[in-house]
């Protein structure tokens, strides 16, 4: 009896906790459009049949609990975009799941990893002011420890500050933006003139120059990454928005070799020592394993090796000579920059056809590897049905052709020939009985004679 009571109590507690968790995520309907302007909302637009949406669902409830418990002003909700398609289209939802932070009249898309920590960090960053003040040296040092890349506006009111505020409102989805006075900066930081926009990263700082770097928005977008990164599929997608070429050392971190370590070290040296030469055009990093690169270029990249990707047009470059020294690696990168290196791939029609065939082949192979029986069923059944349909069509045509030969012959006659044929038939019908009577009379005349002879 005690065990039954304990199980009932635990069941009630579980139901209570689950209902409490669900309370942190609100189900939204079409009335949300009129009420949302008073609050900051983090909304998941989903479809009930979407597998990725179902995978995100428990993470989304954790996000709601985290933001509520931390005292964040952000309210968390979810909306069935198929039931309220009009609302979803107004917010620019084109795929599922789509995560947006709605702040006043602005809507910010979340494009990062779908983990609780990343989503919560995005919500806290975007919900706050676009530019945060650093009032003291202690606060500046604290932020330097927290962020690998730190953008700071230094100076008073100016047209540059207005541009900086606009860029911060646009790119806050990617990084933080701060402002400070010159007294807050470390003594080692010396700026040639004020006001200035400075980025602190890679153990150094770099100042924006309008004449050399172009627009402030483009410069911030390119500088928001460290000079050297560990690159995966998601990072490569983000780097594509910077417009830079991506130089990657493809290595195997699970089975490191001396050659892999040397190649990784060379890439790091180029990123640091040749920043002034290559920073505006190249992003450097390494990738563990060649599976992703192979699927991207539809080929085979040896490990270890160097590959340079142009994510804007899907071209890639491979060294025609060894890159065992710093000079050889720099020469290869320079050849890509000046256009003398051989480019492969691209986004032409032939490459697109190859991409479709490659993706189809990869999908089929993955299905057969994971579940051979399922693969046979998925691909064998349609082929069998198509074969039966073809067989039925062929046999039906042959039978119909043999049965309709006479009809085709009749259809081939002209109108005059048909009339003559009908006249012949009528004449034969009229002449038939007379001939029969004559034959009978002749037979009657011959019979007596025959009898006499007999």
From TrEMBL:
Residues 431-443 have a biased composition (Acidic residues). Residues 444-454 have a biased composition (Basic and acidic residues). One of its GO terms (molecular function) is protein disulfide isomerase activity. It is a single-pass membrane protein. Residues 401-454 are annotated as: Disordered. It is found in: Endoplasmic reticulum membrane. The keyword Signal applies. Residues 1-128 form the Thioredoxin domain. CDD domains: PDI_a_TMX3. It catalyses: Catalyzes the rearrangement of -S-S- bonds in proteins. Its main location: endoplasmic reticulum. One of its GO terms (cellular component) is endoplasmic reticulum membrane. Its EC number is 5.3.4.1. InterPro entries: PDI_TMX3, Thioredoxin-like_sf, Thioredoxin_CS, Thioredoxin_domain. It is an enzyme of class 5 (isomerase). Pfam families: Thioredoxin, Thioredoxin_6. Keywords: Membrane, Signal, Transmembrane, Transmembrane helix. Probable disulfide isomerase, which participates in the folding of proteins containing disulfide bonds. May act as a dithiol oxidase. Acts as a regulator of endoplasmic reticulum-mitochondria contact sites via its ability to regulate redox signals. This is protein disulfide-isomerase. It comes from Seriola lalandi dorsalis. The lineage of its organism: Eukaryota, Metazoa, Chordata, Craniata, Vertebrata.
